[in-house]
Design brief:
alpha/beta; TIM Barrel; 8-stranded parallel barrel; two-stranded antiparallel sheet; 15 helices
């Protein structure tokens, strides 16, 4: 899976009481604790995204359950997914998740698999045109090619049918940090519009077998700006991955220059896709991110509980109820070198956001 990590290296509040206005945790009087005990967690998806190899040296299902998480996402492309699911280790992992009541999803950049690059010699028109006006097989596709769209959709539907997530939520992202097509038919569409056009078609194909299917639109680097010409079909949901941020300052701090752009992008995309099914994909626990994607130079997670708490409150204040984080390379070698990761703290922060009677989020201490 090293190539996935290296790919990533290439890129790579609304008021709901005093907590969201100030970023502080409000201590509740004792008589109000019945809502804490009887209320529903506001954050419905509480997850991590890992590599299968991470689960070989760290008891991920058991630790996720202990932390109160709901979902483990596997970060591997569709071809490698097939091998893992069929393997003895894959069977054991999936069985453990099922036994513990954990959902399993698959999240990855997928276009190189859904449109195999070896088709370029025979069908160059399926592939994107670069800024110099040449068709190239380096990444993604031409979304103005009906045959290219059909091939991607056929393969996405096939993988979805054979290896479905337990949540009916699918994640087939465009290639990592790579541009979309610049041909005369595509170039007036932004990368976000091109991605959404493709996602609408993939969702229709996947729903022929899974009527409950939903599909993520990843907001990340080239797709940070919202689509403006293509409208999402019902069932397309927002997934927001703020890889440009740091973890010294909470993301609500607009004094950090990049944060103002990230906040504005989130709000603009929420206006297009809505918040009901939106998901945040963070990097709080991502060892690969914090190690600058150098496996031989693992760095400790720079965990700051106050930052994570404020981040979660910020996202919940915008109505987002699905939150996960990359935790790639968080395995036995990390624990041996740096000690136990803050999984229980992370899960506790997500569970601390409770649903008030009016449906709004509220943090309890």
């Amino acid at each position: 899976m090293a190539h996935i990590a290296m790919d990533r290296r290439r890129f790579m509040s609304l008021s709901a009481g005093a907590v969201f206005a100030t970023g502080c945790i409000r201590t509740m009087p004792e008589h109000e604790n019945t809502t804490r005990q009887n209320g529903q967690p506001f954050i419905q998806t509480r997850g991590v995204v890992i590599l299968p190899s991470d689960a070989e040296t760290f008891p991920w299902p058991e630790r996720a359950k202990r932390a109160g998480l709901t979902t483990i996402g596997l970060h591997l492309d569709p071809v490698l997914r097939e091998g893992f699911v069929k393997s003895e280790k894959g069977h054991a992992f999936l069985a453990a998740c099922k036994r513990l009541g954990l959902d399993v999803e698959y999240e990855s950049h997928a276009m190189n698999n859904l449109l195999p690059r070896d088709l370029f010699a025979k069908y160059p028109e399926m592939f994107r045109m670069n800024d110099e006006g040449r068709r190239v097989p380096d990444a993604n596709l031409c979304v103005s090619s009906p045959d290219g769209i059909d091939r991607v959709c056929e393969n996405a539907a096939s993988y979805a049918r054979r290896y479905p997530p337990t949540t009916h939520r699918y994640f087939f992202w465009t290639d990592d940090g790579q541009p979309m097509c610049r041909c005369p038919k595509c170039r007036d569409l932004s990368d976000s519009d091109q991605a959404l056009l493709l996602e609408n078609e993939m969702l229709k194909a996947i729903r022929r077998n899974d009527a409950k299917a939903t599909l993520a639109h990843l907001v990340y680097h080239g797709t940070l700006a919202p689509p403006s010409q293509v409208k999402p079909l019902p069932g397309i949901f927002l997934e927001y991955a703020p890889i440009q941020r740091n973890y010294r300052q909470p993301i609500r701090n607009r004094e950090v220059p990049e944060y103002a752009r990230l906040q504005d992008a989130l709000d603009a995309n929420l206006a297009v896709f809505g918040a009901d099914n939106a998901q945040v994909l963070e990097y709080w626990l991502d060892v690969s991110f914090h190690s600058n994607w150098k496996r031989d130079a693992l760095a400790p997670i720079p965990w700051r509980r106050n930052v994570a708490e404020d981040d979660v409150s910020y996202y919940a204040g915008r109505g987002i109820r699905h939150i996960t984080t990359f935790a790639v390379w968080l395995g036995g070698d990390y624990v041996e070198k740096f000690g136990e990761p803050p999984l229980d703290e992370y899960g506790g922060i997500l569970r601390a956001i409770q649903k008030k009677p009016d449906g709004q989020p509220q943090r309890y201490s």
